[in-house]
Design goal:
The complex is a heterodimer of chains A (536) and B (341). With 536 residues, chain A is mainly alpha-helical. Chain A has helices at 4-28, 31-39, 49-69, 99-109, 114-141, 150-172, 177-191, 197-205, 214-244, 264-289, 295-298, 317-325, 342-367, 383-402, 405-412, 416-447, and strands spanning 41-42, 78-80, 96-98, 258-263, 331-333, 336-338, 460-463, 469-472. Classes of the chains: A mainly alpha (536), B alpha+beta (341).
């Protein structure tokens, strides 16, 4: 097809390309690494994209954050607001406020394109946490944390904690009434820690509440400490993924020792770059069209005022809900007391995160599975783990709902007292019920047989009781894995080679009229050997 | 499998049994790693011999042309959105337009890139070995152990120095942490004190002194000690209960002026201002966590996570008829802490 000119042009391009690569390699000797990197294979599944969405939210946060930092004034000094019409927010004219709050008003009303930067920044933070939470669920439910990836599970959780704290510190920077109230609650929680609480609270705040040191300190924490921590942890997270290679779902021809997907260059890199564009686009749309955290409506913070309907950003909701639901217990004796906020504010999240950090060990202990895995579990194949995960989600949902009892009670016309009582029971009941349903659903899904998306490898040859042979599906697994048309239930032909647990290798074919017959009469084996060595 | 077969044999052919104990459970380790012998040299994860140089519409110039047009359309959309964004900015900026134009720009670029990669760039699914990166072979592990051993044995020979190093490091490290203490004041008694005291005038938000008649029946007002509006510990609610019968707890006789009572506004649960007053039930509700206090029963908590009553401020009237506190709060206000007793 190619003409002489095309060939010549191609040769010329190659010449330039080689000259460029030579120039680099002469200095760094990097061609070997480059070739390996460009050829590196990445498995493809939509759920693997969510972690990338989180990473790209971080990119958007860094860019918009630098812009905002150029205008923000980290000072709690009291000033009087003097806006002029068209330059500022007139309803707050003449009010006392901190310089920090005023600078955020200025970013909002006086800096051109300031509001979209601020709203994109806040939306990106909210989506960042959502993507992290989804990513965490994906890792949990598919068993991707198992050996050899326990380290990255721990690093991922450290990232989750850092991002939560980073988000909360950023949310508090504007020094508005809503976030200030949140900080008051945090002070009380810190104060409630046994032995060191009040000293720790005074060290963090610099003095008695509210003091004037916290805002500049939060700025340092939000601009420097946590971004650095996130950047460092993220780097290690990605290096380990690069080293260990991504997990993949089981599927035809996939084994524990091979990897299937597209190479880094060009498919993966360009599509990932496209994802950065799409994430930025969605965040720009959210930031431009959907108001978030309108601090000018909340007003400046002062310690004796509060607005009804005080809810934090969504990812802190479960902690706020925990503080709301914990009964009125305190412990006082020997001249000391453990104040109420300690239990829901420190103990509950402490237990929750300890369990999360320990989960790979707990999981290993439950399943007695010390082996390394590159192929993921289907959630249904590990009903107990799935039930635990769904129960945990129900627990977080219950607590998150609890952080909105005032608003929900109003909307649903239920007194908030009743709603809180319902949710207090819900903390225990909801996880158990949801977990039990999940467990049963997993078992039911297992009985439906093969994978709903991946078709089984090979066909299945069945010899019936009267000696006749027929195949289930064609050679490349052309049937839907249900097989009811053939009069066999799902158990009879789950020889797709991915049944890591052996659940699907029951081998008891039951014929159409339901009478069981001797399994040894059934010859069920893959007609096409496609299963890898690690699948058995 | 040549050198790794007898790794514990030294260069002079003498067995060195010490290092092989390190790998006693070697067979178990083999099983842990995907059922593959980690000592076998593995191919790396780069696919070889698989042709993924084809692109989707290679054999269909018509569809390729269509794809090219679609991609060009997306990217031109980005171009226009970029110009539109710049114009919007220059003419004064408008948040919604900026957002929409940025979104169109980014999404056009992204969708165009996705179509480009999918339809016109080479690369189909390929399979490769996962490579040897997950585990090192035995000789490498032993070499690493040996390298580490260069210091472990000498350290073990001189336990005194090792322990001294630990002690010195611990003490010095602890000493280096002392500057953390300059981060904040010591709490001392500040959590027990407010700006209230004997004879301090009760003022409103504008520092104006108040008379008992300024609060009408069922009225509520946030008040402060004179010249102490900025003291976050001192904010107080003044409530006129009128003729509603209320309990006077032991030790608080004479703290009210008729139906006029004063309680700390700082919730004893988590320190939010107890800002909501229901004048029909005479209950104060904290908007943060819904702790509810019955004003008629000495602001006893009747619902929610708070477990202590709101402290009461003893009220009096000075010679000019203005409200004063006859003494300060008799217990620490606000949420609990370890040394509160």
């Amino acid at each position: 097809m190619s003409t002489t000119e095309e060939r010549l042009a191609a040769q010329k391009r190659l010449k330039y390309e080689k000259a460029g690569l030579d120039a680099i390699d002469d200095r760094l000797g990097s061609s070997g690494f480059l070739q390996k990197a460009l050829d590196k294979i990445f498995p493809d599944h939509w759920s693997f994209m969510v972690g990338e969405i989180a990473m790209y939210c971080f990119v958007v946060l860094l860019i918009t954050g630098v812009y905002l930092a150029l205008y923000y004034v980290p000072s709690a000094s009291d000033i009087v607001y003097h806006p002029t019409p068209g330059h500022g927010y007139m309803p707050l004219a003449g009010q006392h406020m901190s310089e920090a709050y005023k600078s955020v008003l200025d970013i909002t009303f006086n800096v051109r394109a300031g509001l979209i930067m601020r709203q994109m920044h806040h939306w990106a933070a909210v989506v960042f946490m959502a993507a992290i939470a989804f990513h965490l669920c994906r890792i949990f439910f598919t068993g991707a944390f198992r050996r050899p990836r326990e380290t990255n599970w721990v690093i991922g959780l450290l990232l989750l904690l850092s991002v939560m704290l980073e988000g909360f510190s950023g949310y508090s920077l504007p020094d508005d009434l809503l976030s200030g109230t949140g900080l008051r609650v945090v002070f009380s929680i810190v104060e409630s820690i046994p032995f060191i609480g009040s000293w720790l609270a005074f060290d963090l705040w610099g003095s008695a509440y509210p003091g004037s040191a916290l805002i500049p300190r939060l700025f340092v924490v939000h601009e420097f400490l946590f971004p650095l921590a996130i950047l460092g942890l993220l780097t290690v997270h990605l290096m380990i993924i690069w080293r260990q290679k991504h997990t993949d779902f089981p599927g035809p021809g996939k084994t524990e020792t091979n990897i299937r997907g597209s190479r880094l260059w060009p498919q993966y890199a360009i599509k990932s770059g496209a994802l950065l564009m799409v994430v930025s686009g969605v965040l720009a749309a959210l930031g431009g069209l959907f108001q978030i955290n309108p601090i000018w409506l909340y007003g400046p913070y002062n310690p004796f005022t509060v607005s009804a309907g005080a809810q934090p950003d969504w990812y802190v909701g479960w902690l706020d809900g925990s503080v709301r639901l914990w009964p009125h217990w305190e412990f006082r004796s020997f001249g000391h007391e453990i104040a109420n906020p300690f239990f829901p504010g420190i103990l509950v999240p402490g237990i929750v995160f300890t369990l999360m950090f320990a989960w790979p060990q707990i999981d290993r202990w439950i399943y007695k599975d010390h082996a390394a895995h590159n192929l993921l579990d289907r959630p249904r194949d590990k009903p107990f783990r799935t039930a635990v995960g769904v129960g945990a989600l129900a627990f977080f949902t219950d607590l998150t709902l609890a952080s909105g009892t005032d608003i929900l009670g109003n909307d649903l016309h239920i007194p908030f007292e009743r709603l809180i009582e319902i949710l207090q029971y819900g903390v225990f009941v909801a996880p158990l019920v949801a977990g039990a349903i999940a467990y049963k659903a997993c078992q039911a899904l297992q009985r439906t047989g093969t994978h709903p998306i991946m078709k089984p490898v090979g066909g299945v040859l069945i010899r019936t009781a009267d000696g006749a042979y027929h195949t289930l599906g064609d050679d490349h697994g052309g049937h839907d894995g249900n097989g009811h048309a053939n009069g066999h239930d799902g158990n009879g032909h789950a020889v797709d080679g991915h049944a890591v647990d052996g659940h699907a290798v029951d081998g008891h074919a039951v014929d159409g009229d339901g009478s069981a017959h001797n399994p040894e009469e059934d010859i069920t084996e893959p007609a096409v050997g496609g299963a890898g060595p690690g699948d058995a | 499998m040549t050198t790794t077969d007898h790794p514990s044999v030294g260069p002079d052919g003498v067995e060195e049994p010490s290092s092989s104990a390190f790998y006693e459970d070697d067979d178990a380790k083999v099983k842990l790693h995907f059922g593959i012998d980690p000592h076998e040299p593995w191919p790396d994860d780069v696919p070889r011999g698989q042709d993924d140089s084809r692109w989707r519409f290679q054999d269909n110039p018509k569809l390729a042309r269509m794809a090219e047009l679609k991609i060009a359309f997306c990217w031109i959309l980005t171009l226009l959105a970029g110009i539109g964004f710049a114009v919007t900015y220059v003419v004064g900026g408008q948040t919604q337009a900026e957002g929409a134009l940025l979104a169109v720009g980014f999404l056009g670029m992204g969708v165009g890139l996705i179509l480009w990669a999918r339809d016109l760039l080479p690369g189909t699914e390929v399979t490769a070995s996962r490579g040897s990166h997950n585990v090192s072979d035995r000789s490498k592990r032993e070499a690493a152990a040996e390298a580490l051993n260069r210091t472990i044995d000498p350290i073990a020979r001189r336990p005194f120095l090792f322990r001294l190093l630990g002690l010195v490091g611990g003490v010095f490290g602890l000493a280096a942490l002392f500057p953390i203490a300059s981060l904040g004041d010591r709490p001392h008694r500040s959590l027990y004190k407010t700006a209230w005291g004997p004879g301090v005038r009760v003022v409103d938000q504008d520092n104006q002194p108040l008379k008992p008649s300024d609060i009408k029946v069922n009225g509520i007002l946030t008040v402060f000690p004179e010249n102490g509006i900025d003291d976050a510990q001192s904010s107080t609610v003044l409530i006129n209960l009128g003729n509603a019968p209320f309990d006077v707890r032991p030790g608080t006789q004479g703290w009210n002026i008729g139906g006029l009572v004063a309680f700390s506004k700082i919730c004893t649960h988590a320190g939010c201002p107890v800002g909501l007053y229901n004048s029909t039930t005479h209950q104060l509700v904290c908007p943060c966590h819904q702790s509810t206090f019955d004003v008629l029963k000495g602001c006893n908590p009747v619902f929610g996570p708070a477990s202590r009553s709101l402290p009461q401020l003893p009220l009096a009237v000075d010679t000019e008829g203005y409200l004063i506190s006859s003494k300060g709060y008799q217990e620490p206000v606000g949420p609990g802490f370890w040394n509160r007793a």
